[in-house]
Amino acid sequence: MAPDPWLSMYDSTCHIAQEIAEKIQERNRCQRNGENSMKLNVTIRSLLQNLKVKIDQLKDLLLRAISTRHITQLEGDRRQNLVDDLLTRQRQLEASYKNDGTEPDVIRSNLMTGGVKRGVTNPWLLEETEETSGLNFGEIRQQQQRIIQEQDAGLDALSSVLSRQKQMGQEIGNELEEQNEIIDDLTNLVANTDDKLRSQTHHVKMVDKKSTSCGRK
């Protein structure tokens, strides 16, 4: 199956969000250590703008796919949830970027639990789960990709079932049409036989009448 352009774009957008989170952490460390962070700030601003553009493109493509019924409603809802999650991450990243970096950086456990510590907002996740505990950004991203692949596989299986049911419905419809044609043929045959029978009965009566008349003479 060819890669879905929308899912490919979503994957690259998640990668941008991850990169922004890492750059913000690096910027904060530089500022606390008294190092120049101007270049990092420029990079982060550029990445944030790119993230916004990507999310807007995902929303437009999703709306187009739904309106043209290129995807199912179920898949459309799933992808809308993914876009909503990206929008939440975008707002968190923008809030983290606006922090001047003078506050101590959050430890990783706080970053992953989605909490707020000393004014620093979690730039990546809303809540730590057992599945993500102990995982780094790359591993979390791989886990998300596996979940998406499993969901896609489930949708493919559902599509296959629906396709078979549609084919069975068409075959049943064709069979009903054939049965109706046979019934029509039988009806016509019975009607023709009935007409012939009435004609023959009438003919026999006429012959019998003539025979009776001849016998009387």
UniProtKB/TrEMBL annotation:
Vesicle trafficking protein that functions in the early secretory pathway, possibly by mediating retrograde transport from cis-Golgi membranes to the ER. One of its GO terms (biological process) is vesicle docking. Coiled coil: none annotated. Keywords: Coiled coil, Membrane, Phosphoprotein, Transmembrane, Transmembrane helix, Transport, Ubl conjugation. This is Syntaxin-8. SUPFAM superfamilies: SNARE fusion complex. Residues 145-207 form the T-SNARE coiled-coil homology domain. It is found in: Membrane. It is a single-pass type IV membrane protein. Belongs to the syntaxin family. InterPro entries: Syntaxin (IPR045242), Syntaxin-8_SNARE (IPR041875), T_SNARE_dom (IPR000727). GO terms for molecular function: SNAP receptor activity; SNARE binding. GO terms for cellular component: late endosome; SNARE complex. PROSITE patterns: T_SNARE. The lineage of its organism: Eukaryota, Metazoa, Chordata, Craniata, Vertebrata.
